[in-house]
Amino acid sequence: MGSKREVLTQEYIKMMTDMIVLCVTLALSLFFWVVSLTMSAVSGNLQPVSPWRWLFSILVPLMLTARALRRRSLDRSGALAALLVGFVLTMANYSFFSALLAFFITSSRLTRWGAAKKKKIDADYKEGGQRNWVQVFCNGGAPTELALLYMIEVGPGEIPIDFSNQYSASWMSLSLLGALACSAGDTWASEVGPVLSETPPRLITTWKEVPAGTNGGVTPVGLVASFLGGAAVGVAYFVTQLVTVSDLHLADPQWPIVVYGGVAGLLGSVLDSFLGAHMQYSGFDASIGKVVSSESATTQRICGKPILDNNAVNLFSSVLIALFLPGMAWGAWPR
Questions:
Q1: What is the pLDDT of residues 256-304, one digit of tens each?
Q2: What's the Cα-to-Cα distance from 182 to each of 64, 80, 98, rounded to whole Å?
């Protein structure tokens, strides 16, 4: 009888908590809407943002981060950082949000996939991923800054990629998509390659065989996975454009977004491997039989120097892709 009461009490507390969160979210949405109306009236040239957009931008990232926290895809600091990144990207453009969602969901699922084999390879493997705020910002920091610049340029809303009419906004949109696709491609390569590859990885700088888990090691399976990971982010962006942009037929063709995402994922993974081979230490620790990223008396160096960690390499790769790849797309984009 006592256990039944405890279960009912827990369900009641959960229901009340959900109601409180919903009420707070509604209040925040209305508050931000009033602020938006006030700023629009004062400046005279800003369009007020719909309260429903505020509500969606707060409520949906909140629900997703809470679920990720329960599933241990994020720790508490990572959940707070992801909530901020999700809010900014959702407010700026729903296509940004869907691209972020595609990256996060696929990466989280692939991290859990093949866990038994990854534990034998990765000395730092964590159950479920457990990404912290540093990892979240290294993957989502550049897209967040680009989303803020996008809102300053054109305001919150969905517009097509169209260099003829929206040059700056199109450039920033492709930069953001490239950064997310780069992160997705690298994650897909590092999560799929060790599980499915039947051959040892080769160091990207020398093409010599190295143990699985070596920074800078690549496999054909991993490279294909990196392209598919970036393309998955591009597909999410493209589909959202089809659903939310009414005058899409008046702009440049949008289907290259998918190809662009795939190329960003592949190039981002290759760039990440190249930086990792040079600037991340990899050594084989004979005491545990795994590749590690720090020197000790029982490790034998494989490659790299202890200059950057994995988070810094991810950040540099995504920033470089965001900076340079849109320029290549601008010249090749069909009109």
A1: 999 999 999 999 999 999 999 999 988 888 878 788 887 887 888 888 8
A2: 22, 23, 15
Quote the CA–CA distance of 64 and 207 in Å, as a whole number. Answer: 41
For the cut 80, the answer to whether the pLDDT of residue 23 exceeds it is no
DSSP 303: E
Task: Locate 110 and state its tokens.
Answer: 């692939």
- Non-local (6+) Cβ contacts of 259 within 8 A are 231, 234
3-state secondary structure of 217: strand
**Number of CB atoms found within 10 A of residue 56's CB:** 16
Domain spans of the chain?
A: 67-332
The CA distance from 288 to 106, in Å, is 30
What's phi and psi for 261, nearest 5 deg?
-60, -45
Contact 308, 280 (CB under 8 A): yes
Task: Tell me the pTM.
Answer: 0.84
